[in-house]
Amino acid sequence: MIKVGIVGYGNLGRGVCLAVNKAKDLECVGIFTRRDPSSISPVINYPVYSTSELEKFKGKVDVLILCGGSATDLPNNTANILKDFNTVDSFDNHGKIPEYYSKLEKVAKDNGTLSAISIGWDPGMFSIARMLFGAVLPDGNDYTFWGKGVSQGHSDAIRRIEGVKNAIQYTIPKEDALDRVRNGENPELSAREKHLRECFVAVEDGADKARIENEIKTMPNYFEPYDTIVNFVSEEEVKKMQQKLSHGGFVIRSGKTTEENSEILELSLKLESNPEFTGSVLTAYARAVARLSKEGKSGVVTVFDVPIKYLSPLSEEELRAHLL
Amino acid sequence: MIKVGIVGYGNLGRGVCLAVNKAKDLECVGIFTRRDPSSISPVINYPVYSTSELEKFKGKVDVLILCGGSATDLPNNTANILKDFNTVDSFDNHGKIPEYYSKLEKVAKDNGTLSAISIGWDPGMFSIARMLFGAVLPDGNDYTFWGKGVSQGHSDAIRRIEGVKNAIQYTIPKEDALDRVRNGENPELSAREKHLRECFVAVEDGADKARIENEIKTMPNYFEPYDTIVNFVSEEEVKKMQQKLSHGGFVIRSGKTTEENSEILELSLKLESNPEFTGSVLTAYARAVARLSKEGKSGVVTVFDVPIKYLSPLSEEELRAHLL
What we know:
homodimer; 324 residues; alpha/beta; Rossmann fold; Dihydrodipicolinate Reductase, domain 2; 2 domains; 7-stranded parallel sheet; 4-stranded mixed sheet; 14 strands
């Protein structure tokens, strides 16, 4: 059995719990939280400890699944944890991946540990599609569309506007753009042509809705480059929408093998629960990290480095006989 | 530069020529044929040799891309070639992969060579999807649909019927079944429910069309388990259809992360040229075989064993910075 620990218990930690529980070759030694452990009732009945107790588990856990955020948790904590443990995380700040990688690579090599970073669906599954599609169809373009799903960053940006009580923002891929890409047109697409932004906003009593709508629609980077729809709804409606964590998206590569012949490759995900699916991907890569570490591998790996056979509980013979 | 040789010059060999020509880090030492080399004018102006001259190239080529068929060419020849060369092939007889693997594994290990087998889109890209999707979404089912595209085996079967001059058979996925799978219904689908078979048949003058249609529709395994449409057309029409080598298909996995939440993962390919795309995949894996062999790896590998970074001409740093 592979022994895993789960660090952090928000939506993602909950998703990891569920995924570890489904994996017959994994056992969970515990959930580690910065909150009062007694305040947490995990979805699966695993023991809950304070993160301050982590060091007692050194040598007793094959891999820690880090469920913190990419803004501060992972950049601040992973390097320190990696001194004593193998880790897997979902670091998703694309622009800062090289810096994060370099920092962790040194720690991992110095300590003989192994870390899989940026695991999930984007980065993760979508990265595999972008890289693989580009390698097998070099003369072409790739397009990533996200949604329909909630963007936390855009929702937060709306909530910072004066007079807004609560808000949620959906990123929606435009069907017309998807169709053009799927038809092999290889279009140049602006941000506005690819995605629509739809906002549901609850405001304070007497707030100036026209001003708020204008502030949203003209917000640089976040909304100005897009067509944005603003709906004013009750706070209850926003809260209800916040319960549903569906998401998804598309990676499409369109390219030519000759002047005459186009080939279109597409990966699409339709997720009813973004954190449950991300937790499930993290769990499969936790299995890979435990195995690779046992083979003596150290350092930092991404989805580009890990042979996919390591993700499966099946033997190599079974994989070749049934899935090839 | 990675030095490749191309063994066999049919539709697939032609596709490999085109793909190697697009790869700036690969050079082609030659095309090897069992036919008279002077009878071949390759699509790219690479030198053409007789396969009997292959042995002169020992030590002068990093990997041979084998473009023979899976019925006899590859089972008969790969083991012998593998004594002296690294290879990559598109062996696609799914049921015989374990046997093919075992035979080659011994030869490769004894001779320190490396062979990537069953590379293409199915097996190949579709195998990656089946394995990866299953690992990250274990509680679910996967479905592979092929088409619309030509099945050579079914076309051959029709041509063996008395009175048939020529024929082509298209395998067509049923939209209704695709929709049910994409909706997360997790249906149990019979062969008849998944695919339709449409045949275009040219017959001898005075042939009994009713008998031929009946013989096709009742042919065990090939057509009996399916809804089959038979169209009688001229030989010219069949020949024209045989020029177009488009194909494609879908791998869809539908599964649950909890009782409430379904997740749907889908890979789809829409190929205007099946052999050109397959040749392009083989070429990317030829790059991987050359690199892995240089690192000292020997034996037999499949798409499950090769980290995808080896397929790309980009550096690991570039991949992390731009595609993760």
